[in-house]
């Protein structure tokens, strides 16, 4: 394997540190604007969809049934959460798609090997992050009475026996949500940020991925999983593999959440719930081996860009945009 394939840099790419620093500063300001717009969307723009939804929901004939109202609710939710942030990210970063610097569009990628390794690693690492977060939350609860972390899936699943509602939840949580989130985070943001170093783009896009979920229950899992999905997107040169893994992950979550709320000894639901739990436990333990394999195969080895890590750290500390971006991410959690 030649060095250009391993590092991902084109040897003829000119190195202009001053120009790169200037471009890096502009990128941070763009991130600040994007974060502020996401907060603005969550505080104000969502009412463009919520108010009409309220009027339509009231006007729905009762004979339309539960599924019609549930479907309308999901459509409005998807529009509120994804429509404006995707537009904002695209128009802010569209010029960056053409300025890819010296990195390759993709790296050595074997889907049959890489995708299972990253998927199993993501389940292990994400679950471990959630376990640690919950343990810390329990300590704070015992010391300061802060309470438990609310379950983000509570109220999301349809009531027991609503098969039509479950099908609707499957469509939006297993198909549309992964597609929209991957297009936004890995398709737009990561692609635009990669020119400043692969891991810079992966980490920042994973932060956005974690915080746009808007709750502490999903934040640690989404952030850690976002890092691994970003690694997959960079190595494959496409968001399709991460979309597939994202959909499979959400399918397991939806099944687990829905089956957990079913009460009584209802077959085959009880047996299916048992098997889903067994699979998740199995994936977690196999994920330890997969994580070791990921590092052993050096899948994490990626170039860092023109600026060194120290140079990037200095630019970040001096740039007020990074503080606006950070405050915006925090605001997404509390608004």
Structure commentary:
- The chain has helices at 3-7, 17-45, 47-59, 65-93, 111-144, 163-193, 198-211, 219-236, 240-260, 269-296, 309-318, 320-334.
- With 335 residues, the protein is mostly helical.
- Helix 4 runs parallel beside helix 6, helix 6 (163-193) runs antiparallel to helix 9 and helix 8 (219-236) packs antiparallel against helix 9 (240-260).
- The termini are far apart.
Short structural description:
The chain has helices at 3-7, 17-45, 47-59, 65-93, 111-144, 163-193, 198-211, 219-236, 240-260, 269-296, 309-318, 320-334. It has 335 residues and is mainly alpha-helical.
Radius of gyration: 21 Å
Q: Give the terminus-to-terminus CA distance.
A: 50 Å
The level of helicity is: over 70%
Beta content: under 5%
Mean of residue pLDDT values: 84
- Shape verdict: globular
> Major β-sheet, in short?
none
SSE-based structural type: mainly alpha
């Amino acid at each position: 394997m030649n060095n250009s394939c391993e590092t991902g840099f084109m040897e003829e790419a000119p190195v202009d540190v001053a120009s790169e620093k200037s471009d890096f500063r502009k990128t941070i300001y763009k991130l600040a604007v994007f974060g502020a717009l996401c907060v603005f969307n969550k505080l104000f723009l969502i009412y463009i969809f919520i108010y009409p939804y309220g009027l339509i929901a009231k006007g729905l004939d009762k004979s339309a049934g539960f599924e019609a109202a549930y479907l309308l609710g999901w459509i409005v939710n998807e529009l509120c959460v994804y429509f404006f942030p995707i537009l904002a990210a695209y128009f802010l970063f569209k010029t960056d798609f053409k300025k890819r610097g010296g990195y390759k569009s993709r790296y050595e990628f074997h889907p049959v090997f890489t995708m299972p390794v990253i998927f199993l690693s993501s389940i292990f690492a994400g679950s471990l992050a959630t376990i640690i977060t919950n343990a810390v939350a329990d300590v704070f609860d015992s010391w300061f009475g802060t309470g438990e972390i609310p379950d983000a899936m509570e109220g999301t699943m349809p009531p027991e026996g609503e098969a039509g509602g479950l099908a609707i939840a499957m469509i939006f949580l297993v198909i549309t949500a992964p597609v929209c989130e991957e297009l936004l985070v890995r398709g737009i943001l990561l692609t635009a940020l990669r020119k400043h170093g692969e891991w810079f783009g992966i980490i920042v896009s994973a932060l956005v991925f974690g915080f746009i979920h808007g709750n502490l229950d999903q934040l640690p899992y989404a952030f850690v999983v976002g890092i691994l999905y970003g690694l997959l997107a960079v190595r494959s040169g496409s968001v399709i593999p991460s979309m597939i893994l994202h959909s499979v992950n959400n399918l397991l979550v939806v099944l687990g959440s829905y089956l957990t709320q079913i009460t009584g000894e209802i077959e085959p639901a009880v047996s299916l719930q048992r098997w889903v739990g067994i699979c998740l436990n199995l994936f977690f333990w196999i994920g330890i081996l997969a994580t070791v394999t990921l590092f052993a195969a050096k899948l994490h080895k990626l170039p860092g860009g023109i600026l060194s890590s120290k140079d990037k750290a200095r630019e970040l500390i001096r740039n007020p945009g990074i503080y606006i971006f950070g405050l915006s991410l925090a605001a997404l959690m509390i608004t």
